[in-house]
């Protein structure tokens, strides 16, 4: 009877929370993983999910709903010549005060095209912007906009005036950010863990911050962190717990693989696990290094191969470590039926890893280029080659 009551309570809790009404999690751990000499500020976050009644699987993501930087909000309000108390519409729901809308409802960093066009039309002098907004100047506009934010255009073109209601009508909705879960509910039943690079840089003489990463790192200690699960069926563990897996996860791309290892240990899965991890320096960028070494000693992690790109004169990346272990990778794939996972940067890393995989299949499988490509495409169609890249 007690179990039934608990189950019913969980169901009620789950139905209360939706994408439009996410669960208010509580940040309980905010720990820097990277050393002080690292070029990156990589953080480990733990959120308390007690009472949420929802669920996720390893390989899934959670959407985090951030609020904007209050200092930036205040600067925009001031630049508009407003007080912040003016009533403005929201993307959904009742109207609210301008300051509140800019904090929680609207994206206030990257300038949307409709705002740029409005500035160009109203400013007394904006020849560069008008020129770059021509349809055939799209690439030039993107180059020009790098590192620039909405506030820059308001400051540079004070003659372009906007009433508060009019201004928010030119903005886009503040979107949640998806983070791969770095923990298993079987290991941490009431928590979710993330690994995040906190974005911070200077551009055009101003400090810039990532919206969600700075929210988690700087402003989430004493406010709810709204979250909602996002299912990634294409990136789940093999159904057969005895199936071996090869995981390629440099940098924060290691998140789902930490969760995989927790899950496989908790369930007693017998499948072998091979992780390729990469970062700049072993001494200050080895995220979860101690955990992975413990998993190795225990036998949960069968193999661990790391690539440190800046610890020697020539740059070494995960694809180079793959090619060094090509024969063994081919054996795992072809003879043992391993699943191959890639998570992280989709612009370069994932393409280089894909090229290395095709080279391994060609050379160690004795195949032509076309045959190797066909083999890799079959891995994909059989859901044995899975990617979560961004």
Descriptive account of the structure:
The chain has 3 domains: 2-65 and 176-230, Translation factors (Elongation Factor Tu (Ef-tu), domain 3); 70-168, NADPH-cytochrome p450 Reductase, Chain A, domain 3; 233-389, Nucleotide-binding domain of ferredoxin-NADP reductase (FNR) module (Rossmann fold, 3-Layer(aba) Sandwich). The protein is α/β, with parallel strands linked by helices. The longest helix has 16 residues, at 349-364. The strands form 4 sheets. The chain has a 6-stranded antiparallel sheet, with helices on one face. The protein has a 5-stranded parallel sheet with strand order 13-12-11-14-15, sandwiched between helices. It has a two-stranded antiparallel sheet with strand order 4-5. The two termini are 46 Å apart. α2 (70-80) packs parallel to α7 (150-156) and α13 (318-324) packs parallel to α15 (349-364). The radius of gyration is 24 Å and the shape is globular. The protein has helices spanning 2-16, 70-80, 98-104, 113-122, 127-132, 138-145, 150-156, 164-168, 211-219, 255-267, 282-285, 289-298, 318-324, 326-335, 349-364, 369-381, and strands at 23-32, 42-48, 61-64, 87-88, 96-97, 177-180, 191-197, 200-203, 206-209, 225-230, 245-248, 273-279, 303-308, 339-344, 385-389.
């Amino acid at each position: 009877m007690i179990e039934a009551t608990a189950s019913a309570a969980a169901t009620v809790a789950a139905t209360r929370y939706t994408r439009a009404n996410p669960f208010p999690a509580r940040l309980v751990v905010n720990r820097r993983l990277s050393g002080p000499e690292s070029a990156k500020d990589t953080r480990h976050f733990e959120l308390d999910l007690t009472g949420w009644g929802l669920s996720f699987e390893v390989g899934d993501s959670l959407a985090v709903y951030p609020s904007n930087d209050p200092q930036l909000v205040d600067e925009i309000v001031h630049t508009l010549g407003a007080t912040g108390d003016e009533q403005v519409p929201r993307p959904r729901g009742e109207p609210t005060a301008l300051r509140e809308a800019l904090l929680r409802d609207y994206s206030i960093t990257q300038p949307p095209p409709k705002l740029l066009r409005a500035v160009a039309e109203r400013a007394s002098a904006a020849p560069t912007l008008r020129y770059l907004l021509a349809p055939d100047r799209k690439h030039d506009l993107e180059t020009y906009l790098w590192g620039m934010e909405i506030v820059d255009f308001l400051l540079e073109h004070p003659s372009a005036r906007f009433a508060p209601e009019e201004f928010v009508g030119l903005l886009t909705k503040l979107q949640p950010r998806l983070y791969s879960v770095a923990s298993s509910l079987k290991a941490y039943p009431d928590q979710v863990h993330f690994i995040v690079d906190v974005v911070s840089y200077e551009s055009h003489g101003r400090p810039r911050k990532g919206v969600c990463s700075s929210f988690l790192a700087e402003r989430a200690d004493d406010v709810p962190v709204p979250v909602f699960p996002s299912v990634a069926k294409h990136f789940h563990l093999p159904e057969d717990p005895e199936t071996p897996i090869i995981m390629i996860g440099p940098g924060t791309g290691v998140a789902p693989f930490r969760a995989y290892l927790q899950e496989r240990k908790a369930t007693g899965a017998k499948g072998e696990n091979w992780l390729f991890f990469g970062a700049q320096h072993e001494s200050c960028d080895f995220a979860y290094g101690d955990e992975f070494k413990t998993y190795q000693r225990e036998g949960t992690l069968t193999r661990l191969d790391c690539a440190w790109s800046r610890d020697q004169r020539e740059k070494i990346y995960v694809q180079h470590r793959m090619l060094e272990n090509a024969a063994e990778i081919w054996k795992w794939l072809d003879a043992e039926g391993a699943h191959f996972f890639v998570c992280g940067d989709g612009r370069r890393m994932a393409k280089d890893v894909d090229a290395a995989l095709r080279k391994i299949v060609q050379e160690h499988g004795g195949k032509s280029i076309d045959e190797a490509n066909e083999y890799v495409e079959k891995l994909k169609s059989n859901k044995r080659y899975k990617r979560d890249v961004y």
